[in-house]
Amino acid sequence: MSERLIKGLPMVDEFLLYIKTQNYSEETVYNYEQDLKQLENFLESEKLDFKALSKQMINQYKAYLVSRERKQPFTGLTAPRKLGASSVNRALSSLRTYVRYLIEMDRPVPLPPDAIKMVKTDKKHGQVAELSELVKLIESPQRLEKDELIGIRNRAMLEVLLATGMRISELISLNKSQLDGTGRLFIRGKGKKERFAYLTDRATHWLELYLAKREDSAPAMFVPLRGRNAGKSVRRISTNYLQEKIKEYREKLRINVPTSAHSLRHGFATYLAENGANPAAIQVLLGHESLDTTTRYVHASDKFAEETHHKYHPVK
């Protein structure tokens, strides 16, 4: 696929093959491929060769990524919206990794990886829906889906997300063999870090109910039941499908706070913290390398902050 679609970058097929051999998820490999295709689109639009990439060109690339002239990686169509800072940084990080690979392979590179600087990200904390709303959300698929098995499967996915705080990519990559019968899932997360994720009793119930109703032998934990991927032995639910379903459920339930799969991870950390969980333990559960990263998730909700203020302020 990459050989046909990405022609202007040296050793790109070898790089993507290398990424695959490092046990990255299919989604991560696809993201690298997409990011490199986006780089190629930029180079073509500027009539540049990869060898001419400079610090100045990197700045132009950043501007391209947030511009309305940006093309979608593989379709070539004008992108519907500008990229946010985190998405820009992912594209820049992919470029860094690619350049490091070329260096490792003793190939000439136009600039050192450290010359590719990230952009500033917004430090504001996103809002998280109230716990009661998150519970209502994860319980909604059975009521909102016409197909019983789809409702059970989607509820199981949402239950697992809120129970474990895992990333959506980790959920999609789960195999049935990772469920060990003790209420734990052994997962390989971001950066190939391995950890246990712990299920609640209710998440275990819905997961086991869903698996009991499965009549296929596919290894994936969550599989599509309709569409072009249904029936394939290597099929998996896509992240886009799950995100769209969460959006659909949220809108039907009239939950005002924007909510995504990541919001369930955010809510997992926030409400554990509000109930007195140790931040270091939350760090382990989330699979964060740094406690600083965890603190971005476990900031208090507005309601909790208000209650704390009323309860503990010394001047009543």
From TrEMBL:
Arranged from A to Z, the UniProt key words for this protein are: Cell cycle, Cell division, Chromosome partition, Cytoplasm, DNA integration, DNA recombination, DNA-binding
Query: Tyr recombinase domain: which residues?
Result: 124-310
What the entry lists under Pfam families is as follows: Phage_int_SAM_1, Phage_integrase
GO biological-process terms attached to the record: cell division; chromosome segregation; DNA integration; DNA recombination
Q: Which SUPFAM superfamilies match?
A: DNA breaking-rejoining enzymes
InterPro entries of this UniProt entry? Answer: CB (IPR044068), DNA_brk_join_enz (IPR011010), Integrase-like_cat_sf (IPR013762), Integrase_catalytic (IPR002104), Integrase_recombinase_N (IPR010998), Integrase_SAM-like_N (IPR004107), Tyrosine_recombinase_XerCD (IPR050090)
Report the main location listed first in the record. cytoplasm
List the GO molecular function terms: DNA binding
Q: Where in the cell is it found?
A: Cytoplasm
Q: Where is the Core-binding (CB) domain?
A: 6-103
CC annotations in GO: cytoplasm
**Where on the tree of life does the source sit, at the highest rank?**
Bacteria
Write the protein's name.
Answer: Tyrosine recombinase XerC
**Species annotation:** Candidatus Amesbacteria bacterium GW2011_GWC2_45_19
